[in-house]
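Study this pair:
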Amino acid sequence: MVSKTSMRISSAVVLSLALIVSMVVHEPRFGWAQDAASDALNKAVASTSRRPEDAARDKYRHPIETLEFFEMKPDMTVVEIWPGAGWYTDILAPYLHDRGKLYVAIPSGENAAAYRKKLADDPARFGKVTITDLDPPDKMEIAPAGSADMVVTFRNVHNWMRRGHGEQVFKAMYAALKPGGILGVEEHRADPSKPQDPAAASGYVREDYVIRMAEQAGFQLAGKSEINANPKDTKDYPKGVWTLPPTLRLGDTDKVKYLAIGESDRMTLKFIKLNASARP
């Protein structure tokens, strides 16, 4: 027969365990409450150090909503892949400056030289950023293996496909992430009713094609967002996606028309690196 005292002790133990479980479940990832992370991100996006012409593109690129969808926090180790002129680096570097770590994996070439100079000329903002090389197929270590909490890449998948290195880059991103780490991908979205050009010459890539490359590298799709969708984008232009702003490759020809369309329709995808034992 169980005594009342034993029952009271058992109840107290159960209650204590429940409280512990509740605390664990509600503990913010990486020690950051969502409100604090959002405040830090809003501050980075609103910074006057960003060029006005870059900030004007926020209405197309939705950096706050995109990075929150990816679940980025200020104390993460993050790798940005092929940052171009550094539109996102201008946000990520100050956001991660105090508590986190930012790697930027860049290719060789003239654009990379300009990007390196941009970072070197402003050590207050970029002095803690670590530059690595991503030049498939030879230079593929974007960060120490298993070190990153998150890898992000914006409008780059078509570039890798054009060079025939898409699968290799996804494997490199997988290698850099910790188990459970997140891969965030934004890319120009092709018409799903049309065959995918393996070289993505138009700059557009089918969403299912990107998902398949990621899954073949070991990732699991964790979510999709329409944050960066643009239903005005017909995806059938003379100069591919570069017909639209910001490139406007046709110059003044039909410029008003293309400005009215805005930047491209984009997929926004979130993947998780599975533990090796959990992979199918």
